[in-house]
């Protein structure tokens, strides 16, 4: 970590990512938390996450390993409010199925319905991007 004009910048090295993929996603998860980065590093194991809409935050998904299945667009079925500016549901009605493979990236803008999961193991890095109006 270093400072320029009182702002912190952080380098996440390829080596740290590669080492973390060997060790249940550590030490990268701790590094992200310790440096308060707008990143999520997760592993989908034969599961489907809740469908969601973030009204003020976009997600840039990067598939680091495996294959993830996304549904984007459509409508949330029986949604509930998780927290301010975020809705969740168990499933999406309609939407487009997208398969993300290792090395692929997917941009999901704020306000876009999305859901992800995998039939095997998929490791994903998610960059959280606030909308310009926020």
Fill in the keyword field for this structure:
globular; four-stranded antiparallel beta sheet; Jelly Rolls; 2 helices; 2 domains; mainly beta; three-stranded antiparallel beta sheet; 134 residues
Short description:
By secondary structure, the protein is mostly beta strands. It has helices at residues 14-22, 28-34, and strands spanning 2-4, 7-9, 39-45, 51-54, 57-65, 67-72, 75-77, 80-83, 86-89, 91-93, 96-101, 105-108, 114-117, 121-130. The strands form five sheets. Strands 3-14-5-12 form a four-stranded antiparallel sheet. The chain has a three-stranded antiparallel sheet with strand order 4-9-8, with no helix packed on it. It has a three-stranded antiparallel sheet with strand order 11-6-13, with no helix packed on it.
């Amino acid at each position: 970590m270093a400072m320029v004009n009182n702002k912190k910048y952080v380098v996440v090295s390829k080596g740290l990512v590669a080492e973390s993929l060997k060790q249940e996603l550590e030490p990268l998860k701790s590094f992200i938390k310790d440096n308060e980065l707008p990143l999520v590093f997760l592993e989908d194991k034969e599961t489907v996450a809740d469908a969601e809409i973030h009204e003020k935050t976009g997600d840039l998904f990067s598939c680091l390993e495996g294959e993830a299945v996304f549904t984007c667009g459509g409508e949330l079925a029986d949604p509930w409010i998780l927290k301010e500016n975020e809705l969740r549901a168990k499933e999406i009605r309609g939407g487009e199925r997208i398969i993300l493979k290792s090395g692929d990236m997917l941009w999901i803008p704020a306000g876009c319905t999305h859901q992800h999961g995998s039939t095997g193991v998929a490791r994903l890095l998610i960059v959280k991007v606030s909308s310009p109006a926020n």
